[in-house]
Each structure stands twice: as C-alpha cells, then as structure tokens.
Amino acid sequence: MYLLTFVLCLSLATLVKYASGSDWCYTGCENSPSKWKDISGSFCGDKRQSPLNIVTSHVVTDSKLNNFTFVNFSSEHAIKSIVNTGHTVKCKLKDNEVEVSGGGLNGTYSTIQFHFHWGDTEHHPGSEHTIDDHRYPMEMHIVSLKKGLAVEQAIEKSDGIAVLGFFINATEDRNMSEAWSTLTSYLTNVTAEGSEVNINHSISINGLIGDVDLTKFYRYMGSLTTPMCNEAVAWTVFQEPINIHKDLVQLFPTKAGFTNAYRPPQGLNGRQVSASPATPLPPSPPWCYDDHCDYGPSHWHLLPLSHCGGERQSPINIEKEKAKVDSNLGDFTFTKFDDKHAIKYITNTGHAVKCVLKEDLVEVSGGGLGHVYSVIQFHFHWGSTSDDSKGSEHSVDSKRYPMEMHIVTKRKDLTLDEAVKTPNGLAVLGFFMESKVTPKSSSGSSGHQTTTSTSSSASNKEYWKKLTDYLPAIQNISSKAEVSAEVSIDDLLGDVSRKSYYRYNGSLTTPKCNEAVVWTVFKESVEVDHNLMMMFPTHAGYSNVFRPTQRLHTRTVFTTSASSSSGSMLPVLLLAYLCATLM
Ligand SMILES: *[C@@H]1O[C@H](CO)[C@@H](O)[C@H](O)[C@H]1NC(C)=O
Ligand SMILES: *[C@@H]1O[C@H](CO)[C@@H](O)[C@H](O)[C@H]1NC(C)=O
Ligand SMILES: *[C@@H]1O[C@H](CO)[C@@H](O)[C@H](O)[C@H]1NC(C)=O
Ligand SMILES: *[C@@H]1O[C@H](CO)[C@@H](O)[C@H](O)[C@H]1NC(C)=O
Ligand SMILES: *[C@@H]1O[C@H](CO)[C@@H](O)[C@H](O)[C@H]1NC(C)=O
Ligand SMILES: *[C@@H]1O[C@H](CO)[C@@H](O)[C@H](O)[C@H]1NC(C)=O
Ligand SMILES: *[C@@H]1O[C@H](CO)[C@@H](O)[C@H](O)[C@H]1NC(C)=O
Ligand SMILES: [Zn+2]
Ligand SMILES: [Zn+2]
Fold it and tell me: Under a CB-based contact definition with an 8 Å cutoff, are residues 258 and 70 in contact?
C-alpha cells in the first residue's frame, strides 16, 4: 500500500513536470525545436522569432544606436550563483545592482542573469545567432528586464526584455582573462541538472567581456530563444567575439552533460536588422548603366536591399493622351532659387555630375506637393558625344531628349534617412534639356525639334558655361570642386515655364530605387547650348547614364490643366481665329 502510494507520487511528480511545459529539448526528445510551436501557450511559431542568421549585406546602419551605458558591469561581487537548468548553465546576479541603458534601447534595464549556448564535444559550434551563416563555438546571453518590471510583466511587452548576445570564439591562445578560468572552474560543481552553487570568487561581467568593442553591434526585435519564445526581446548582438581557449569551450558540453544547446535560425519575416554606426558592413556591390559590371539595370533588383523590382519605379514613358488633368496641380513656390551662392560644390560621382547645395537654404512647396521640401542637390543624366544622342530618363510619347536635370528635394520635416523610407519623402523636379540650334550634322532630325517648346531666351548660356567650366576639374571619379562662380538655379532654368508639368508617384532612378519620390516632369525643356551639353560625357569620362523606362503598372500620370500647358498657344489660336473671321 505504502509502496503503491510512493510509486503514484513519483509518477505524479513526473507528470507535473511534463505538464508544466518544461518538457522540451534541443535534441533527443519529442519536443525538439521544430515542435516547440505546438507547446500549449507558446509563441514559437510566430513571426518575430529569434535567433537569426544575420546577413550583413542586408543590415542597415542606424544612427540612433548610440553607446551603451553599463552600471556595475565591473562589479566583482554582482554574480551570485551558477546553476545547471538542464537546458543551459546560468549565472544569477544580485537583484537591482547591474543595469544597462543607451545603445538605442528604450529606457533602463535591470540585468538579472547571463547564460550560455554551446555545441558538442566534437567541436561542433553552438552559437544561436549566425553571421552570414557562420556559427561561432558558443554564445553568451546577458538578460535584462525593463526596470521596474517583473518577468511576467516584461514578457508581455514588445521590448520588456533586452538581451546582449556575445559570440564566443575558441582559440589556441591561453593568454585570456582570468575571469573565464575562474568561471569555468565552477562547471564541475554543477554537473547535475538542478544543481546550484554560490560564486565565491571575484568575477565581473566586464572581466568576461574582455576587450570586445561594445560600440559595434547589431539590433533587431525578436523573442526568447527557448519556450515559450515570448516576442518581448530587443536583441543586441555584438559584432566582435570574446576569444577564449578551446579547452574551456569544451568544458560546457562535457560538464553540463548535454550538447548542442542552441535553437536553429528563425525566419526574418520582413524584419530589418540594423547596426550601430561603428559596425563595419560590407560595401554594396558596384552597379552600372551598361554591361561592364555584375549589376546592370536589368539586375539592379538583385542588389541587397534593393527596391528596383517594385511596381512604382522611375523613370517612365509619359503618354500625353492618358495623363489625367488634376486641378490641384497649381503653381509652385520656389524659395532661394535665385540665390547665386546656394551651390556648395560640384562632384563627379562616377554615375552622374552632381551639384550639392548648402543645407536648409533652397526650398520648394506648392505645386500640389502638400509639404515643404528642401533642395539637397541637382544632377544630370546624359547620353553620348554623338550629335543626336538622347540621354534623358523620362520620355514623352516615347520621345527622349538629349539630357535631363533632376532637382532632388526631401521633405523639410524629415531626416534623409526617414525621407527615403516615406512614400512622399522625396520630391524630384525633372527638366528635359535640349539645344534649340540643331547641329548641322544631324539636320535630319530637325523636323522633330519643332514639336518641342523650348524656353525662348538663350540668355542662360552664360550661366551654363559658368557651371560646365567646372567639369574639367572633376574628371576624376569622386573628385569635387567648390563652386564660387555666381550662379543660381533660376539662372540655369532660364525662362522655362514652371506652370505646366506632369506628376506621378515613382522612385529614385538609381539603386536602391527607393519608392519614395513624388515626381514632377516639366513639359517645356530647358535650352542648353549643344557644345556645353557635350562636355558632360567628354569630361566625366562615361556615357549613357540613364535608366531605361519602367512599367507604369497601375499608376496614373497627372497633368496640369490644358489651359496652362498650352498657355502660349491660346493667343495664337485666337489670333488665327480673329484673322480668319476678319478675312
Ligand atoms: C562611444 O564610445 C567610443 C569608444 O568607447 C568613443 O570613442 C566615442 O566617442 C563614444 N561616442 C559617444 C557619442 O560618446
Ligand atoms: C552598484 O553596486 C553597488 C554594490 O556593489 C551598489 O551599492 C550600487 O547601488 C550599484 N549601483 C547601482 C546604480 O545600482
Ligand atoms: C518606450 O518605453 C515606454 C515605457 O515602456 C513606452 O511607453 C514607449 O511606447 C516606448 N517607446 C518606444 C518608441 O518603443
Ligand atoms: C576565432 O578564432 C580563430 C582561431 O583562433 C581565429 O583564427 C579567428 O580569427 C577568430 N575570429 C575572430 C573573429 O576573432
Ligand atoms: C566545487 O567543486 C570543487 C571540486 O569538486 C570543490 O573543491 C569546491 O568546494 C566546490 N565549490 C563549491 C562552491 O561547492
Ligand atoms: C586625377 O587623378 C590623377 C591620379 O590619380 C592625378 O594625378 C590628377 O591630378 C587628378 N586630377 C584632378 C583634376 O584631380
Ligand atoms: C501618390 O500616392 C499617394 C498615396 O501614397 C496618393 O495619395 C497620391 O494621390 C498619389 N499621387 C499620385 C500623383 O499618384
Ligand atoms: Zn539564451
Ligand atoms: Zn536623376
């Protein structure tokens, strides 16, 4: 009878343990990682899970990820005990002594414990996060709760927990910090699951972190990496590993009695991993306009973080007949377009010639834009040195122009980082450029010219000469020249009509082709002397710097009302009519 009760109690104990949800494992039981999602109440199958494989070419720098502030990380008495949980070896910290803040975290976090993830005794690596598919031998997680919250509260908030992840690399070098020899010596005291001993030696967290550069880290929003996988973690993964001797790494699987204590990488599901400014990231591969590199225009969509394959890309061919009149497309207000000292410098980017303006000086608003936009720069697209070359990006009824000028502006209330992520964050004003005087050698195309209205005055030639005079000085790619000549944007545009234009939603026309641009394409072209236009391909050293037109998909192109677009035509018609009636 007593025996029966005893057996019953024993099996009840196992049952309770089973039902409590602690019955999961990394390998060798039914509830291995692929089944964690089926554990009742677990979030392990959700969309914001950890760990991740961090693909460095897809990481973007975030200037908000500033330096961390660590409190008592150098305290030698903050580590209370070490325990074998059966899933990891964990070091518990004294309550309310250790803190972390900064590093782009939202608030102060109280550090409660750190623990480890490892591989096996055959030197199979066992970090949870991987970097470009590289798995480090181990990973250390320093776990902190948002200050003032209990664990049960912290797991309910999307950033209730902050985990600092450190990779641990196995080296041959025995010259490592004392802290690791001391800490790992305790592993012999916690070989049994559930065993816990106090730490009597002086070990600090900083002693374990060693000389890792704490300004270099990745950040993303994720989850706990063990059931219930609560999606409550602001993750920090430091780029540099902690180097410790390989024999110490081996002590973890050997002494703890279990191996491969790590969860496999989870799906990104549209999340963005960012990096602190100090973190080195691989350079984006070069792109080009022709086939002399791996990423010509037809392959731009394959570039990392590229939007070039999207459905609101630029440039486009504008079909006059299909453009819808929009009465909201009124006059623009141009501020400081007449400032003759607004251009800071001119540079050869290797893809274009760009004039960078002084910050927060020149502005544009009105024109149906709905916001005030600050002009950042203007640049040019061109064809070749042949007389009838066409180098514009946009076309109108399939007609292309010799060159196109883009005045790039960003919403005044946004940073550039924000603007490129916002659907109307940027506004670009596009002007076609052509010469009224057709060179003799291409007189065959002069019939074509009459269909275009060009700004009548040629008085802007002297200004274009002032600007193009700088081109010989920037023949080298990346070179730049300060612009001291007195020339304003108004000077360059001359008396081209700024009242008739097309409007559509599009993108940047160079990688990463962000779909953040409200486009204005003016109907009249700016007149520029043919020989001055030829200086662009000649001095920049490259030709045909324009993207082919992109599909319109479901977009609509809008136009200013017909009366304003043919404003100069109306009196002529009226006159003709009057003449006709008079006769
Ligand atoms: C951040 O820390 C690094 C190194 O510790 C230091 O060089 C840098 O000046 C710090 N930056 C700020 C903004 O405090
Ligand atoms: C740091 O630790 C000491 C004890 O070692 C403690 O007195 C102090 O309050 C801690 N600092 C903070 C900010 O918690
Ligand atoms: C920062 O944390 C506070 C308090 O938890 C919260 O109310 C706020 O929404 C958080 N801000 C962001 C940007 O997450
Ligand atoms: C990791 O350790 C190996 C072996 O000592 C070494 O070659 C490698 O450079 C280390 N990696 C890093 C990132 O420190
Ligand atoms: C840990 O184990 C060692 C060797 O077995 C023993 O000498 C030491 O007293 C133990 N330490 C603790 C804190 O139990
Ligand atoms: C261009 O680069 C070459 C060599 O790199 C240099 O000798 C020359 O002075 C540079 N020219 C200009 C205009 O900067
Ligand atoms: C551009 O898209 C926005 C919505 O993102 C829409 O409100 C606006 O009308 C569109 N403008 C044009 C010119 O299509
Ligand atoms: Zn962990
Ligand atoms: Zn452009």
Answer: no
Sequence spans of domains, the chain? 2-12+43-275, 297-575
**Average pLDDT score over residue span 9-16:** 39
Our separate counts of H helices and E strands in the chain read 12, 31
Whose Cα sits closest to atom 6 in ligand 7?
505
* pLDDT tens-digit map of 325-357: 999 999 999 999 999 999 999 999 999 999 999
- Give me ligand 3 centre to Cα 159, in Å: 8
Tokens matching residue 538: 């000649």
Distance 297 CA to ligand 9 centre (A): 14
Which CATH superfamily is 297-575 part of?
A: Alpha carbonic anhydrase (3.10.200.10)
Per DSSP, what are the bridge partners of residue 380? 405
- pTM equals 0.75
CATH homologous superfamily for 2-12+43-275?
Alpha carbonic anhydrase (3.10.200.10)
Other beta carbons less than 10 A from residue 422's beta carbon: 13
> Residues 174-223: pLDDT tens digits?
877 789 999 999 999 999 999 999 999 999 999 999 999 999 999 999 99
Are 2-12+43-275 and 297-575 equal in CATH topology?
A: yes
**87 catalytically annotated:** yes
Q: Please tell me if the CB atom of residue 153 comes closer than 6 angstroms to any atom of ligand 3.
A: no
Q: What is the distance between the alpha carbons of residues 24 and 32, in angstroms, rounded to a whole number?
A: 6
Q: For residue 255, give both structure tokens.
A: 């002494």
Q: How far is CA 469 from CA 407, 461, 533, 545, in A?
A: 20, 12, 11, 20
